[in-house]
Amino acid sequence: LIPFDSLTINLYNFQENTMCAAYVSGLDIDGRRKGDPLVPGGSLSEAVIHSRTGLRIQPASFDEIVGQFPRLSPIFQAGLRSILCVPLISRDEVIGVLHFRSKKQNAYTEQDLRLAERIGMQIAGAIANAQMFNDLIRTEKFLRVSEEKYRLIAENTADLISVLDMNLRFTYVSPATMRLRGFTVEEAMGQSLEQVLTPVSMQLGLTVFEEEMQLEASGTAEPDRTRILELEEYKKDGSIIWVEVSLSFLRDKDRKLVGILIVSRDISERKRVEEEKQILQERLQHADKME
To answer: Which residues contact 286 (CB under 8 A, 6 or more apart)?
Structure first.
């Protein structure tokens, strides 16, 4: 529809004010090959981006136009004499510039410019969709790598990592549950808090939960706060262990509560030592009184 000896699509990054040659067809031009970074300043692309309108460049004097657009020099040195360029606009933002170039003098008409603008609209939509798809793929890859990394940490740490939803049901339990409590992940996931905590610890946990919900409702609480509790939990063999649990909230992108992250550590030995120390101190105090 539009004859050319060189056709390029230069994509523009508004936030970084950078540009690159994303597509190149036809005549090989130094510095205008696919993937080459381009400097917007002093370029014809910059003028199109700022004006948001197409341009026809078919100068009688090349020196004059190069003086206005210094970066056109390699174009004319390659033997090209006519240039037609239109902005690629998506969602009211210029994302690039489409260039047609011809060795023929006065190759392009006003009708060609209007046609190029319509073609540019179709290309802009296709590019925008491709960019969104690529962004989605990169985001999914990033999330997948992040999930794998944190899952690897969770599954290999000595601490038990659990997640409760806001109805206090387990949605995740790390494999450390077997070492800490003797239950498999599947068994632990199916338990209620009443089956995990002793009655006294269950009451303490519910009291803390209610306090935190009241703080959340007040709107004055630190969103990334952490509570640390010492609780008693049942093991599969019926025995009881002391655990230190670190509680923090999980939030979505809108900072709304979606769950509770729990990191549990066995402190039974520490509690045993503290108890023995307390008994020893009481005996010493009793001995001092007897003397």
So the answer is: none
Close Cβ partners of 140 (under 8 Å, ≥ 6 residues apart) = none
Long-range contacts at 258-263 (CB < 8 A, ≥ 24 apart): 258/165, 258/166, 259/163, 259/164, 259/165, 259/166, 259/171, 260/163, 260/164, 260/165, 260/166, 260/168, 261/161, 261/162, 261/163, 262/160, 262/161, 262/162, 262/163, 262/164, 263/159, 263/160, 263/161
* 127-160 tens-digit pLDDT: 888 877 777 777 777 767 667 766 666 666 778 9
Instruction: Kindly report the pTM of this predicted structure.
Output: 0.50
Q: What's the CA angle centered on 38, arms 129 and 76, to 5 degrees? A: 115
* Amino acid identity at 105: Q
Cβ 89 vs Cβ 67: under 8 Å:
no
Q: Give CA–CA dist 58/84, Å, rounded.
A: 9
Distance, CA of 85 to CA of 80 (rounded, Å)? 14
**131 vs 249: CA distance, rounded Å:** 34
Is a pLDDT exceeding 80 seen at residue 110?
Answer: yes
